[in-house]
């Protein structure tokens, strides 16, 4: 049975009562208070094995108190909880040495798990951390549960140099996350260099990344520094990493493995000290199966994966984002605007294929083009209506035969390797590309019922189970 004394500080008596009961049921003694002065007195007297504290208290902010606690009792774990659910709060909790940060409201079972983990963990003095300036502007907006999870991961990464892979649809804010990792991390005083792989001609990517020597190729009239050299001591952000050609992938892998590179046309190895943050809007595992991305490079880059949710999965953030973008537009000299409740509900129902970038563009357009101070649903319906330009001829039609779709995919695979052939195993890789969506969609259509799915596919149940294991398909019953 767990044991130990928890010091709980929250000025909300109802929350104190709930947490007292929940922690008491699992065997902890809880001493609770609504102010920071009492908490400090208990700590200075050597009481308590763990602290759970809200950020805002009547007599003192917990972020001002925590450094004193850590100096007096560096091995005392502190769990910070707050209704101010921003990235700044998560970062400040981590910077001040908190064991964990929990945004309110949180699940009581999650709190108990955190407490159990903190009470049983080896006690080590906290490493001093540099505190961020209070006036800094945090680039990420949103208080949804999905964003809270990202804030907590980012806060833990700020004092590390771990390689990060950010995935998400176009317009979700991948570069903003990369910049936050740099601006609030240990390399904040170094350069932040961003490279978009999709925007550089394939034949120039290696020169762009690693630089080249004079005479290395036609037109190389002088030595040029590459992005690795420009980012020395800082962060190199490799955007759209899925568009990097195979030759450049091989060189990048060598840099990650050995910590050095050579310029194009050069022979002398150059040591490098950069943090790599990569991003992609493509499924790299799918590209691996197609032979278009190196699996060993993927694992080198995917040390800490961060998935940015599309805006349609965090619609509760739309109001905050709109206020933020309207404020930006007003700061730039555009007239002040607001959106009525009916219009806001319409925006929350919209699918946002362009994600946060599409929302930002819409808000700026509204601020610039409309004289109305309050924007209603009728205006928004007009702005969100899709123009009837017809489908581009290169896009597949709805009734395109499967064989034609497969042929287009194969053309992309072969053209992606130029004059070379794709790696061996193309047959198996292509089958997996067809099988995974086939089995996933069949299971979704039958709401996870494997008997019905097997009948739909025309295979026996054992074969279906085998394919589920081989393809690592998650089966969720009752959902469609």
Automatic annotation (TrEMBL):
Keywords: Activator, ATP-binding, Cytoplasm, DNA-binding, Nitrogen fixation, Nucleotide-binding, Phosphoprotein, Repressor, Transcription, Transcription regulation, Two-component regulatory system
Entries under InterPro entries matching the protein: AAA+_ATPase, AAA_lid_NorR, CheY-like_superfamily, Homeodomain-like_sf, HTH_Fis, P-loop_NTPase, Sig_transdc_resp-reg_receiver, Sigma_54_int
GO BP term, pick one: regulation of DNA-templated transcription
One term under GO cellular component: cytoplasm
Free-text function comment from the UniProt entry: Member of the two-component regulatory system NtrB/NtrC, which controls expression of the nitrogen-regulated (ntr) genes in response to nitrogen limitation. Phosphorylated NtrC binds directly to DNA and stimulates the formation of open promoter-sigma54-RNA polymerase complexes.
Record NCBIfam families: ntrC
Protein name in the entry: DNA-binding transcriptional regulator NtrC
Source organism per UniProt: Parvibaculum lavamentivorans (strain DS-1 / DSM 13023 / NCIMB 13966)
């Amino acid at each position: 049975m767990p044991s130990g004394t928890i010091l709980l500080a929250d000025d909300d008596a109802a929350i104190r009562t709930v947490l007292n009961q929940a922690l008491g049921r699992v065997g902890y003694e809880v001493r609770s208070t609504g102010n920071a002065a009492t908490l400090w007195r208990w700590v200075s007297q050597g009481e308590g094995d763990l602290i759970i504290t809200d950020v805002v208290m009547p007599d003192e902010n917990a972020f001002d108190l925590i450094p004193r606690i850590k100096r007096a009792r560096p091995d005392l774990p502190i769990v910070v909880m707050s209704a101010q659910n921003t990235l700044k709060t998560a970062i400040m909790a981590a910077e001040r040495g908190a064991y964990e940060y929990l945004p309110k409201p949180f699940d009581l079972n999650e709190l108990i798990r955190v407490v159990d983990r903190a009470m049983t963990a080896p006690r080590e003095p906290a490493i001093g951390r540099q505190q961020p300036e209070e006036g800094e502007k945090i680039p990420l907006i949103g208080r949804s549960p999905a964003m809270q999870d990202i804030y907590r991961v980012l806060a833990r990464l700020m004092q590390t140099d771990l390689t990060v892979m950010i995935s998400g649809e176009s317009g979700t804010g991948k570069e903003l996350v990369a910049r936050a990792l740099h601006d609030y991390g240990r390399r904040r005083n170094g350069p932040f260099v961003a490279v978009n792989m999709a925007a550089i001609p394939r034949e120039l990517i290696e020169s762009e990344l690693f630089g080249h020597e004079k005479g290395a190729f036609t037109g190389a009239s002088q030595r040029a520094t590459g992005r690795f050299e420009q980012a020395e001591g800082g962060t190199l952000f490799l955007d759209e990493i899925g568009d990097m050609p195979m030759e450049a992938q091989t060189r990048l892998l060598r840099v990650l493995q050995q910590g050095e590179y050579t310029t194009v046309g050069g022979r002398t190895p150059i040591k490098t000290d950069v943090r790599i943050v990569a991003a992609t809007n493509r499924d790299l595992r799918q590209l691996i199966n197609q032979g278009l991305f190196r699996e060993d490079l993927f694992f080198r880059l995917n040390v800490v994966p961060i998935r940015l949710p599309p805006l349609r999965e965090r619609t509760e953030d739309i109001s905050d984002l709109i206020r933020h973008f309207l404020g930006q537009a007003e700061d730039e000299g555009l007239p002040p605007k607001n959106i009525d409740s009916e219009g806001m509900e319409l925006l929350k129902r919209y699918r946002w294929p362009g994600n946060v970038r599409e929302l930002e563009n819409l808000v700026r357009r509204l601020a610039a083009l409309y004289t109305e101070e309050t924007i209603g649903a009728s205006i928004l319906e007009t702005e969100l209506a899709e123009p009837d330009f017809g489908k581009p001829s290169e896009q597949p039609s709805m009734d395109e035969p499967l064989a034609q779709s497969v042929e287009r995919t194969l053309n992309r695979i072969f053209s992606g390797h130029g004059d070379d052939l794709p790696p061996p195993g193309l047959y198996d890789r292509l089958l997996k590309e067809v099988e995974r969506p086939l089995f996933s969609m069949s299971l979704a259509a039958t709401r996870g019922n494997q008997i019905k799915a097997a009948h739909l596919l025309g295979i026996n149940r054992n074969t279906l189970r085998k394919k589920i294991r081989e393809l690592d398909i998650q089966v969720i019953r009752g959902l469609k």
